[in-house]
Structure to design on (66 residues):
């Protein structure tokens, strides 16, 4: 998971005014099998969360170093 948060002025993620930007980001995330979540409040900023699926290699036990 990758999360980015800011304390800016926020925006309406459902607005059509953003052209291909947000839909393009969602489409690229879907291509990877990921989910892009966008939360925004007009006065509190926004948070973008990209949830990536784990591959079989990353699900394996972590390697320990001594």
């Amino acid at each position: 998971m990758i999360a980015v948060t800011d304390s800016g002025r926020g925006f309406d993620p459902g607005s059509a005014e953003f052209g291909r930007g947000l839909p393009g980001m969602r489409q690229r995330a879907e291509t990877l099998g990921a989910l892009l979540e966008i939360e925004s409040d007009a006065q509190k900023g926004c948070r973008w969360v990209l949830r990536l699926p784990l591959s079989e290699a990353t699900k394996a036990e972590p390697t320990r170093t001594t």
User: Anything to note?
Assistant: The beta strands are 2-5, 35-41, 45-51. The chain has a mean pLDDT of 79.
